[in-house]
Amino acid sequence: MIKKIIIPIATFFLFACSPSHFVKPLNAKQKAVNLSIGGPLIDYSNLPIPMPFIVATYGYGIDSSLTAFGSVNITSALFGNAQVEAGATKRLFKQKGKLPALSISPVANFIYRDKRASAFYPQLDINAYWDHNKGRNFFYAGISNWFELKSEKAHEEKQTHLWIITPLVGETFVRRKWNYTVEAKIIAPNVSNIGVVDYKTPLGDHGAFGIYFSITRKF
Asked: What is the model's pTM?
């Protein structure tokens, strides 16, 4: 089932299968390794389950407001698809009382299977986050923006979605050396999912609902 879905990299719902990376920047010169699992919910044997995409990420705190990172999708690689990300998270504003901190994350996404199946997607994530529980947790909400650079789909069809949005929310549990995160998002609510996969979504025939769990080790 999974192999049949992953091999034809022809739909955005599979491209956006990673959770947010470093919504809150690392400390200066701090390093971190993150492993996440999850993806859009699908109907599998009459049960809604998240697709088991495993993504590994490495991050480095350039300074206390800027973190660079790179990721590789392990599950995609197991089925012959190279899917990697490179980006950075920049904090624009610190939290002030009930006003959240704000960060942006420009990301370059590269996907390759062969000469006929390859793609590049620029991405810009915007997230607001609130520290709470005396700094032991932070909640975040944001929107991920993906941009389609090709004017045509396969078979010379006109590209109808050049800007694809994904609203998301998450909670991170912060410990001295470890972070634990759960994230939920509605992937591409402005894109029809008819005829692709039986995605589970609150929007009927549009978008896909995704759930992700991740663990981060800080050094």
From this structure: 0.87
